[in-house]
Design brief:
alpha/beta, globular
Amino acid sequence: MAEIKDITKFHIFSSAYFASAVNRSQYVTDGKKEIAFIGRSNVGKSSLINSLTGRKKLAYVSREPGKTRTINYYAIQSRRIENEEEQRQDWYLVDLPGYGFAKTSQENKDSRTAFIDEYMKKSPGLIMIGLLLDLRHPGLPIDLKAFDWLKKAGIPIQIIATKGDKLSRNDLKKNLMQMKKLFPTASLPLAYSSLTGEGRDALLEVIERKICD
């Protein structure tokens, strides 16, 4: 029997590629709220975006790490029923270039970091950054460095722990506790599996609070 979805809950019902930016002049500035995702190369960012929106090919999933080299905006429409009235929201999910072991020069990496840093500090609609971390490898130096960098932007951070389906339940809980200590934020880290969908409802609840606030 097919799963019956609760359409009164906050959910995404439409998603589409909207625009890409390679400099500040190309930022989308139409007043809509933005939720941005960032993570180490090959952490599963594109897969999570596809899972979250329910679109298999919205974000391109590459076998070669570091393929996302532009800031990509996806136009999202969501809705929920509250007090028997439908509420709709229009916002952007923003895919930021990955950091880490992409095959590019140090000069290009530094340029990309500056590019992302400018977006985080200057984009008027940015209300949350989802930092994706591989749950199998909590506390990698490159992730700790990225976390310190992101905190300086002053934007609320949500830790999203990916690839939890590759761990036993005990190891998953242990690594989540470790991430909680190493990456302290106002909200608890979320385990997310793009393969099974575990954590999707929890992440949508976080996004709902930000978008509907």
